[in-house]
Amino acid sequence: MTEKQNTDAKSYESHLKEEEYYYAPPDFVGQANCTDVNIYDRFSLDKFPECYKEFADLLDWDKYWHTTLDTSDAPCWKWFVGGKLNACYNCLDRHLDSYKNKTALHFVPEPEGERIEHITYQELYRRVNETAAVLRDFAGLKPGDRATLHLPMTPELPITMLACARLGVIHCQVFAGFSGKATGDRIANSESEVLITQDSFYRSGKILDHKEKADEAVEAAKNQGQEVKKVLIWSRYSGQYNSSSSLVEGRDHLMDDLLPNYNRMEVEPVSMPAEDILFLMYTSGSTGKPKGCQHSIGGYLSYVAWMSKNVQDIQPNDVYWCMADIGWITGHSFIVYGPLAVAASTVIYEGVPTYPDAGRPWRVSEELGVNIFHTSPTAIRGMRKAAPEEPKKYNYHFKHMTTVGEPIEPEVWRWYYEVVGKGKAAIVDTWWQTETGGFMCSTLPAIQPMKPGSAGPGLPGIHPVILDDEGNEIPPGDGRAGNLCIKNPWPGAFQSIWKNKERYIDSYYGKYNKDPNSTDWRDWPYLAGDAAVMAEDGYIRILGRIDDVINVAGHRLGTKEIESAALTVEDVAEAAVVSVNDEVKGTVPDLYVSLKPEVDPSEKLAQKVSDAVSDVVGKIAKPAHVYIVDDMPKTRSGKIMRRILASISNSQEVGDVSTLANPQIVEEIKQQVQS
Length: 675
Known about the structure:
Residues 1-10 have low confidence and may be disordered. This protein is α/β, with parallel strands linked by helices. It is 29% helix and 21% strand. It contains 21 helices and 31 strands. Helix 7 (121-138) packs across helix 8 (156-167) and helix 15 (377-386) packs across helix 16 (410-420). The longest helix has 18 residues, at 121-138.
């Protein structure tokens, strides 16, 4: 085998054709925050790291920093060392002179009959201060302590987060859909002595008992040696405790009972070192223990503020709706900290956005005057599947739309652009991770054109590179794919894994580092764990997680390309590819698809999907089977659980499905596939 052949064998294959360019409307460009075409020159590697002063200058500092980037403990980067600030102050206090009567949070309850709550910056400031007083004076929390939050999408979640930030307390929010045991695991790992939860919340038209999970969480943490001394409970309806779970004397306390003792109390924001921890965000991988990603105060907040201003184009008169859950990093960065740092009006929606029907997102957008819309490809595919013509019925006007969380297929992108955005909105297709804190690859909407299915180039200050397994750079436009890496540190990057520095280094920096003692950032490229291809124009196309790559007879194929090809068939709403063991080829792809409403499954349609994959990607990617299913197994956040589908295809145990939003579908698919 020649050297060139050997390199090819260790790369991934990419077959999707690059898409055409779309340009933002002139009226968007004319009003945009970021229009400087020379911005990338300001953030070139020869100006690194001092270029990031521009990010930090978006914040108010109690004390200016003396070192922009400290690499002495590489790769545990420290940003703006010597600087001091408070995250809550930067999200609230400093806005009061100009925006005290402006809406900070629009809370939309799931029941459509309940009134939308419009919370001003002044009101939010008051509620955060009172909550901070409870946490400090009653719960005894102090700077550096950890508090676990298991809160749903109600105003009390950002209020509690900001109250923690005001005190310098590290918050660890757990997605409300997670079980009590999963919450207990995170309590134990973070060594939290205080759990903050809510009695109930709405989802899919039902009010769910949430407090009962707190009892399970406390017990699970206790079994791992961590005692929870206080459980603080918000009420979905003020003055009403709505849970069948009884209160444990001495441990459980209703916030309704505590807050009157701290009425209108103001708490001085604690001035914190920039490199101290703002929060822990636990990743939820299908294997291994969740990782507590620790994000710093100064680096993280400056990063998401800059992204909110320049990538999201948030301005004082905008109404911004990110449909994510605050239990995930997207909600932390782009519902709470980023938007509030730039004085946005941000929307919080309680439950399922398509309840009571598929028109709900568009009615909310119309009523509130939402003009910046931010959601995931999963949600977009779901809305397209449920009611593809529904957005046309409503009089809303988006200037800007974001897609985030996973690669978006070109066909889905076009529907998002043409139907949801009415062909008049700029779209940013962003790539980033829990670990990165904020966007990494995206277009700047007023400067660069959009390209369906591509996340755009590295943002200013971010220098992505595609490496093969040997560490050789794959040039842009080469056509081969490889491991997506980032050459340089950036302020939003997580500092380490809580209590597991070794895992942090091994997982993210170990593969390509040649000198573990080096303090030169150039020796520590960040391994994202995603397979990607870089076009000649520098745009990145994500092909899926490295672990999701299917090796068919020596050809390494990204699952996302096969799924994108399936979605070129007009009747297909969703697609999921999994790897199946094969005696001859090693592994082959199985393809699961669900259809748009009123489309009947048939062998003919399955064949059409299979042919589309062969035509778009190549015969090597032809699925072993195409299964047309009623629905995909999904988490409560809407992500397809491909791991479960893979277990079904390989006749393996699927494991616990109780945390799925639709566990009943698993048995239906199993009977269909294995019969």
